[in-house]
Specification:
The structure is a single chain. The protein has helices at 4-25, 45-49, 83-92, 140-150, 157-166, and strands at residues 34-35, 38-39, 68-72, 77-80, 98-104, 111-113, 118-121, 134-137, 153-155. By secondary structure, the protein is an alpha+beta fold. The protein has one domain. The strands form three sheets. A four-stranded antiparallel β-sheet has the order 4-3-5-6. Strands 8-7-9 form a three-stranded antiparallel β-sheet, sandwiched between helices. Mean pLDDT is 81; it is low at 7-40.
């Protein structure tokens, strides 16, 4: 007769082995380790401080190409996964003075001033938290090249924000 603890041990070992094998095959698995809410191995300082979007819980490292960082005049900040969640953040903090809104350049993933970025609205590339994609680019030429390849329309930050407010 097999003891229940032996069966449990075998099942647990099997689950760990299969889970590890599946995780290694997943394209989005980066090999980073997670400890509580802290991400180790992030290459972005803002992600070290704000690793998960406070509105939807999405991993900001995984969505580094669409992430947003809003810094308020009082020095507080919020790290978000997308312009969609930025809209939620701004509605929840209506009237709170903003120092700067930074957004990731789609290609380099480096943060740039959202108002200075060239935005692309729409196109064939699936957006983050939206049906109508919105992507930011530090260089207008990069945005234009994206439009040639994926479609969409060049836009300003105000236009992208207005589009996100409609989502």
């Amino acid at each position: 007769m097999i003891k229940h603890s032996s069966i449990f041990g075998v099942v647990a070992a099997l689950v760990l082995t299969v889970g590890t094998a599946l995780a290694a095959q997943m394209p989005e698995h980066s090999g980073r380790s997670f400890v509580g809410d802290a991400v180790s191995g992030s290459s972005h300082a803002d992600v070290e401080k704000h690793n998960a979007c406070p509105h939807c819980g999405m991993d900001r490292e995984k969505f580094a190409h669409s992430r947003v960082l809003v810094t308020y005049s009082d020095g507080s900040s919020a790290g978000l996964c997308s312009i969609h969640c930025l809209v939620t953040e701004l509605k929840g903090n209506k009237g709170k003075p903003i120092k700067v809104v930074e957004v990731a350049d789609f290609n380099t993933k480096k943060l740039v001033d959202a108002e200075k970025a060239t935005w692309v609205i729409g196109g064939s590339k699936k957006g983050v938290m939206t049906r109508v994609a919105k992507w930011a680019f530090a260089k207008k030429d990069d945005a234009a090249a994206f439009v040639l390849k994926n479609g969409g329309t060049l836009a300003t930050y105000k236009e992208a924000l207005a589009s996100a407010e409609k989502d």
